[in-house]
Structure formats: C-alpha cells, structure tokens
Structure of C2 domain-containing protein:
Amino acid sequence: MLHKNADLHPVDKLGSTSLTLTIGLTDTYVKTYLKDGDRRIQKRKTRVTRHSQEPQYNQTLRYAASDALGRSLLVMVWERQRGFEHNIGMGVAEINLSKLERGHKTQHGWYRLLPVSSVVRVDSDSGDSVR
C-alpha cells in the first residue's frame, strides 16, 4: 500500500525523438496535469529546452501518490514562441495512473503523442493555444 504522503514521479527523464522534423530547432517545454475525469486538478511544468530537435528534459515532476491514484496524467509538449505570440501545442498523451500497482511509484513506457487539438482547449493561465 502506498503511504498517503509518498511521492509519485510520473514524469522522469522525459525526452522526445524527432519532435520537429519539418520545423527545425525549437524551444520546447512539457506541461503536465493530473486529471480527475475532465477536470484538471494540478499542474507541473519543465524548464524550456532551447534550440533542440530531440529535446531531453531530464527533470522530475512530482505529484503526491495520494493525489495521483485513480486519476490520469495529461502530458503536453509545447513550443515556446517569442514576443506576444501564443505558444503552440505540439503533442499530447494521456496516461491512466490507475494502472500503477500498489507499492510501485513508477510506470515506464513510450506514449505516442496525439495532436493537441484532440484533447486541449486554450490554456488560459499561460496563453498557450492550439493552432
């Protein structure tokens, strides 16, 4: 059984290969949300990885295990824009955290990024939008 204050590390050493083959070098970051049904309840973000076609974020985004069990994790990759332009959603994956076994805090795997427009509305807290 997981201790209610144990940390869950659902995103650790996140990376992407050939994220922007046609665009060239981009500045990207990852934003994650814990979701309870359709409601987003907690958010975490990585730092921006600059000028990369195969970004490696090498950061740990932590959620309390008690908050994550039975929920899903929305993982979104964004391209940061300069100036006043909205950031561009590049891809999204939703990971069901109810598959985590009790006593295990890690779920390893590769997840296909889907078009952000398939699950995302404009993110009003940061100016991110889908094109």
Q: What stands out?
A: Confidence is low (pLDDT under 50) at residues 1-8. Residues 7-118 form a domain with the Immunoglobulin-like fold (CATH 2.60.40.150). The chain is about 5% helix and 40% strand. The helical segments are 65-68.
